Amino acid sequence: MTLTVQDIKQVQEILQKNHLDYQLELKDGKIILMGPSDIQSSEIGSRLIWLLMNWVAPRNLGRVLDSSGGFILSNSELKAPDVSFISAARLKQSPRYFAQMMPDLMVEIKSQSDRVPPLEEKIQLFLSLGTQVGILIDPDEETVTVYRSTEEPIVLTNADTLTIPELFPGWELAIAQIWPPQF
């Protein structure tokens, strides 16, 4: 049985009624259940959203979304990056449904249970369907890998600075700022 995005919506309603907290994706007509993330990965996502929003919001550049923002891909799959951005020029108002477009930026954050190859595969899928920049954040290695469809991936470490001039002209982020602080 091949499932559709409409089936996902029905399953989400059942999960919500039963107070179950799972994110859902649709791949090859099958529902993929994704449980909550580990705390460190969640904090990295929150920090990145906060740092991006501090640049994006005052300039009205677009929308920064968390891991709950789902995208219906042209291959009928439903995917939700950990962090994503859609420019204001492309999305004037947020729909009360999944986005039926590709984000300009998508970010995957490796959680404790993730393996890197499936995350890279997801990033490459988004790039092949029109996303401009994909980023893989690996807390275990303390690396940030930037993917663009026209270039080889660039691996950044704590001594480096992340820039995405095609989407955020003038924005710079020291990689060391991404990691949760120790108190």
Please, could you describe this protein's structure?
- Helices cover 26% and strands 26% of the residues.
- With 183 residues, the protein is α+β, with helices and mostly antiparallel strands.
- The strands form four sheets. Strands 3-6-7-8-9-10 form a six-stranded mixed beta sheet, with helices on both faces. The protein has a two-stranded antiparallel ribbon with strand order 1-2. The protein has a two-stranded antiparallel sheet with strand order 4-5.
- β9 and β10 (154-156) form a beta hairpin.
- The mean pLDDT is 88.
- SSE order, one letter for each helix or strand: HEEHEEEEEHEEEEE
Task: Please report which band the strand proportion falls in: under 5%, 5-15%, 15-25%, 25-35%, 35-45% or over 45%.
Answer: 25-35%
Low-pLDDT residue intervals, each spanning 5 or more residues: none
Structure summary, number of beta strands: 12
- Overall mean confidence score, pLDDT: 88
* Rg from alpha-carbon coordinates: 16 Å
- Helical segment count: 3
Give the quaternary arrangement of the chains. Answer: single chain
What kind of sheet is the major sheet? 6 strands, mixed
Fraction of residues in H or I helices: 25-40%
Dominant shape: globular
* Class derived from helix and strand content: alpha+beta
Read across the widest sheet, the strand sequence of neighbours is 3-6-7-8-9-10
